aldehyde dehydrogenase (NAD(+))
Amino acid sequence: MLESILEEFSIKETNAGAHNGRQTIPTPGELITSFSPVDGQEIASTCFVNKDTYDAIIANAVLAFQEWNAVPAPKRGDIIRQIGALLREEKESLGKLVSYEMGKSLQEGLGEVQEMIDICDFAVGLSRQLHGSTMHSERANHRMYEQWHPLGVVGIISAFNFPVAVWSWNAMIAMVCGNVCVWKPSEKTPLTAQACLHIIQKVFEKNNVRPGVCNLIQGDKEVGAWMAADTRINLISATGSTKMGKAVNLAVANRLGKCLLELGGNNAIIISKDADLNMSLIGAVFGAVGTAGQRCTSTRRLIIHEDVYDDFVSKLKSAYQQLKVGNPLEAENHLGPLIDKDAVINYLHAIEEIKKEGGKFIVEGGELEGNKYASGCYVKPCIAEVENNYAIVQKETFAPILYLIRYKKLEEAIALQNDVPQGLSSAIMTLNLREAELFLSAKGADCGIANVNIGTSGAEIGGAFGGEKETGGGRESGSDAWKSYMRRQTNTINYGNNLPLAQGIKFDF
């Protein structure tokens, strides 16, 4: 199966470190070998770009922008529509590759490709709605309005946990707005990126799109640093850790460039005494163990009212006993491996830190061993009773570790939810209208995403996605997030036969 998928996406050139949307560009750079966390097997290899190849890709992208920007937006939208159509045909194969290279369940891999399809549909509609505003001038015979123009070259740095969806959120919107894209995927998931460019290539060739509109460059943090410092790149959209985001933001700010950051999360669900506990259980468990806890929106903390604490914890323990960990391509398994052995080390370190700070495990963690876990990347999802101020609880650990915290009053629960450096996703489970409205008010959750009676994980593309504080403040995907990829221009037109000045200023001579 794997060999046929790799052949289908032309993943066979070991020196293919770059792609310009029309052809693979061989690169004499450092070799990257992608090993699957599912079974530890080598999938295929590619190369990091060197500086010469990088510079050539960016220079060509700058030239491509002039041509792509001249294509009418609805026609750009039609090309995106064709990409979405081809993704529909390739959904099963690409979903399996995502699952095998990254380690998430096949359902989630297919769901990630569906997100790509959905954002293509959104971008098609957007292509006829890139509208500005009109306003009245204080001067007679004058008209004022605002319009939006593309920025130019958009650099996209994506993370391993969503190896294709988050790129598409950025790329499809940026391209339909008239920009060109340069994508640096995670070095941990290089092959799914190559598969995406193979799909793009088919559509671009059919429509005779100039090389350089959608580009791929493989590399590590050094390549990311080149992008952040490059004045030819008008916007850097970076997804990853807060540490990475701070470094990118500093470099981009130093050249007064634009940055869109989607960084860490430390997300909580408040379980009210007025919650539907069975429904709450589904949201909490999927939020905590989906993608093996490696989503930026994963549920890290459950803040539970003391009146329902024991009952809900009992339900949690029962649910965790039923979880199956194993090959994510097998439908009966709920979660697969962590991305690599370094992630396992971080998981084990977090468990030790919880114990040192006084946490009590109610579902024990640890590595899983045996033939079916031979990759060394499988761990047990675990649950610990903690205090919110523990140093380890204040950090984001990319693993299936769930923290439990008690509360008495809703105001206390909201304060606990907000009392972490990150501010991405949040939720409350309650059938009490007053509680729900307070949670959503200015006195409530301080996150970019705040939900009622659904979990923290699983955003739809129709809404803007992003968070506050150390999450970075960026917004991607739906709503008016498209404005991040464009520059605003205010226009005033004088259609009279004299030139009055604003604010009544007289300048006669």
